[in-house]
Design brief:
Blueprint (H helix, E strand, L loop, with lengths): L17 H4 L10 E7 L11 E9 L6 E5 L2 E2 L2 E7 L2 E8 L7 E9 L2 E2 L3 E5 L16 E2 L17 E6 L19 E2 L5 E4 L2 E10 L8 E6 L7 E9 L2 E2 L3 E5 L9 E7 L13 E7 L19 E4 L2 E2 L2 E5 L4 E5 L7 E11 L2 E2 L4 E5 L4 E2 L1 E2 L9 E2 L1 E3 L4 E3 L2 H6 L14 E3 L6 E7 L4 E3 L2 E2 L15 E2 L4 E4 L2 E2 L1 E7 L7 E6 L7 E8 L7 E7 L1
Parallel strand pairs: 32-33
Antiparallel strand pairs: 1-2, 2-6, 3-4, 3-7, 5-6, 7-8, 7-9, 10-11, 11-15, 12-14, 13-14, 13-16, 14-15, 16-17, 16-18, 19-20, 20-24, 21-22, 21-25, 23-24, 25-26, 25-27, 28-34, 29-30, 31-34, 34-41, 35-36, 35-37, 38-39, 38-42, 40-41, 42-43
Length: 515
């Protein structure tokens, strides 16, 4: 995903009440609010929206003012004065406010204004209709969509707008996010009355504010010309704007929609030497499921912090690239840019937060219950999967009793059993002090073993489990193996298993079947 520039600045609505325009040029010690509207002059307001309070305010520095909406502190951006009197203050509605009746109060040096009633709704999409630098539409290469450079049927376009409401998860305004924040309510986009495919809607990887972006695909049947575009979210429709549409599909650079842990698929930090999964568009096929250790596949490559990352697999048909985070990158909490390179140009505007360890469980799907997060685990020194009887049966696997150690089967573990657990995200690993280099898999023979520098902690049903060893799985870069023992006293059933690494905030939880 590209998100090449900061959120658009909307032109403020100027159809102000006459009483405000002719307010006397006098110092007003007590602020008075007469009207509140959004960037398009509408009184339909929503969380995280930039709104304008009109009235009479002391002509003072912005730092002398404060504001609350629904009792919560609201960030202030500017005050506009004329003839010695302030008449307009811009503020942002807090992200976490619920729809319904609310109030706005603006204070000057502690003196509050009148309590002005407003009504919030979940969303209130608003699109800037300005041209030039204010263009709301961008091609995937970052260029503005214009009449001379129109959007093309089938092309992915970025629409910058406001009013998509809360994100999921809700994150405080002014904080920073190292991952994309999708809108809690997914909008729809129509172009010329034809529904477009929305690839992402929410806030970019940046400081959390009131600016949103939507990535959508121009419908293949969209007519050439100025097509009316409308965004609808939660039943609220935006203003109508015109999207110039041409007739020829343009080559587009790749876009990144999400960066996630390659095992847990959580949008959190990643560790050196671990799997990172990239979701997006513009990844050229065919699929290649055994690309490692190549750094270029189908003219696609991935840079993390400016360093080429080995590609584990490219699943272009599903818009997915799995890469190995280079082992020599820092794991100290800093954010590093992630770029997908292709013949059509680079993606842009994405970053991932690094950590010394960011563990995530690999999982085994349960056909009987898709919500079960079953940790991928084997009985030690066997090919026997640790599964519930029902899951093993659903997967067509026999019980392991009487099977050879190399047979594929499944059954629950017992307290005291030794188990091998498979994860990613345990960070640096060494053999005799020598680090495992980027793009190198440890010997399949297990000689030598590459032990993780940081030892993970495991609990099973909240009981501490004895960890016997933590290594990069022999023959597999990015895949880590933890040998541990099911604690005595673990009750039968789905036992929650949690992994953590001291000094690192990322954890993961799954279940392991116990009998």
């Amino acid at each position: 995903m590209y998100f090449l520039r900061a959120p658009l600045r909307f032109a403020r609505w100027r159809s102000l009440p006459l009483a405000i325009l002719i307010a006397p040029a006098a110092w007003c010690q007590t602020p008075v609010i007469a009207a509140v509207s959004d960037t398009l002059g509408r009184t339909t307001l929503c969380p995280a929206a930039s709104v304008f309070a009109y009235g009479t305010f002391p002509a003072d520095n912005l730092g002398s003012f404060s504001a609350t909406v629904g009792g919560e502190t609201a960030p202030l951006h500017l005050i506009v004065t004329q003839a010695g009197v302030g008449y307009e203050i811009n503020l942002i509605i807090p992200m976490d406010l619920a729809p319904g009746p609310s109030t706005v109060v603006i204070s000057h040096d502690g003196t509050p204004s009148n309590t002005f009633p407003i009504t919030l709704q979940a969303t209130s999409p608003a699109i800037s209709a300005g041209g030039g630098e204010g263009s709301a539409f961008l091609h995937s290469n970052g260029a503005q969509v214009t009449n001379s450079y129109p959007a093309a049927p089938g092309e992915t376009i970025q629409l910058n707008l406001a009013g998509l409401g809360a994100t999921s998860p809700v994150q405080a305004l002014g904080s920073t996010s190292s991952s994309l924040l999708p809108a809690a309510v997914t909008p729809t986009v129509t172009v010329g009355g034809i529904k477009a495919t929305v690839q992402f809607a929410g806030q970019p990887t940046t400081t959390v504010g009131n600016g949103y972006a939507i990535l959508f695909t121009v419908p293949a049947s969209a007519p050439a010309g100025a097509d009316t575009l409308v965004v609808t979210s939660g039943g609220a429709a935006s203003n109508e704007v015109q999207l110039p549409v041409g007739t020829v599909q343009l080559p587009t650079a790749p876009t990144i929609a999400a960066l996630v842990n390659g095992a847990s698929f959580a949008q959190e930090a990643v560790a050196p030497g671990s799997f990172l999964t990239i979701y997006g568009t513009g990844f050229q096929g065919p699929d290649n499921l055994a690309a490692f250790p190549a750094t270029t596949v189908n003219n696609l490559s991935v840079e993390i912090g400016g360093e080429l990352a080995p590609i584990s697999s490219l699943i272009a048909s599903q818009g997915q690239i799995n890469v190995l985070v280079p082992s020599d990158l820092p794991g100290y909490g800093e954010s590093l840019p992630v770029t997908v390179l292709s013949n059509n140009g680079p993606s842009a505007g994405n970053a991932v937060r690094m950590a010394a360890a960011a563990p995530g469980f690999f999982l085994v799907a349960d056909p009987t219950n898709s919500s079960r997060r079953v940790a991928a685990a084997l009985f030690a020194n066997t090919a026997w999967l640790v599964l519930s009887t029902a899951q093993a049966s659903a997967l067509g696997l026999p019980p392991c009793t009487g099977q050879s150690a190399t047979a594929t089967c499944g059954q629950p573990a017992k307290p005291g059993d030794y188990v091998e657990l498979f994860v990613t995200g345990l960070g640096a690993a060494t053999a005799g002090g020598t680090p495992l280099a980027t793009g190198v898999a440890p010997p399949a023979s297990g000689s030598p073993l590459y032990y993780t520098v940081l030892t993970p902690t495991l609990t099973v049903n909240k009981i501490a489990a004895a960890v016997l060893g933590s290594v990069v799985a022999p023959g597999f870069a990015g895949l880590y193996q933890i040998d541990f023992q099911i604690p005595a006293g673990t009750p039968a059933g789905d036992a929650p298993i949690e992994i953590s690494v001291a000094g690192n905030s990322v954890t993961d939880t799954a279940v392991v079947a116990v009998q």
